[in-house]
Amino acid sequence: MGFFDALLGRSKPKRANLDDLFALPPAALTLEAATGFKPTGVGAVAFRQVEGAAFQTAESESIALISSDSAASVSQRNDGFGYTWQVVSDSDAQVVSLVTNLHAVNSALVSQGFDTMLLCSTVYFANPDGRRLALVYQYKRGTFYPFAQSGPKQRDNPLEIQVRGILSNELPFEEDTSRWSPLWDAPGLNDTPRADQHP
Question: Which stretches does the entry tag as region Disordered (predicted)?
Fold first, then answer.
């Protein structure tokens, strides 16, 4: 950050660091203890798809890496807004394994030079009442934010603020709440992995 930025109170957004995802497993334990929200075993990576052999190679590489995990499965979905989602399910609902597989998807795209195509990664949670919650990592900001959809085009803002308060010391949260973009009906949000989903 430059002198004038500091003087005027401006700050540059944190650069994305894929290893930030590995802070999620301990954060998930904290979240469960405080709120009862448990990992569903499902997460996703969203990216803008492009044409070309290199991109297809990156996609195939990530799918092959995930398929080597006997508890994991992966599906690819389009959201209708120009983004493709690779939805990863872990039948054991192990956050460490899920995050490792999400990291593999991201790394495969970055290694082929497609880091600018990455939008976000999501890990999904549910409570005993069936309410759903996502922790979202946005690449362009290098920060997390919570997203809780409570109905069609409705979100649970109090829950999102509560989650930020609980995890603010464990994850780099996005301070500007206007950048907490809604991911309405995000692919994978309502999925529940089953044992028979193994590849």
Answer: 178-199
Q: For tokens 């979905």, name the residue.
A: 77
Centroid of chain to Cα 57 = 22
**95-111 vs 53-67: helix crossing angle, rounded to 10:** 160
Strand locations in the chain, DSSP E?
38-48, 72-78, 83-90, 118-126, 132-138, 143-147, 149-151, 154-155
- 63: helix, coil or strand? helix
Query: For 3-37, what is each residue's pLDDT tens digit?
Result: 444 444 444 545 567 789 999 999 999 999 999 99
> Can you read off the two tokens belonging to residue 198?
């193994």
The Cα 111–Cα 61 span in angstroms is 11
Quote the CA–CA distance of 165 and 174 in Å, as a whole number: 12
Domain boundaries, the chain: 11-190
Token pair for 91: 């039948």
Please answer whether residues 137 and 120 qualify as being in contact, where contact means their C-beta atoms are separated by less than 8 angstroms: yes
Tens-digit pLDDT profile for residues 138-166? 998 999 999 999 999 999 999 999 999 99
CATH number at 11-190: 3.30.70
Q: How far apart are CA 197 and CA 74, in angstroms?
A: 9
Digit-coded pLDDT (tens) for 57-95: 777 777 777 777 778 888 888 888 889 899 999 888 789
Residues 6+ apart with CB under 8 A from 117: 47, 48, 49, 50, 55, 109
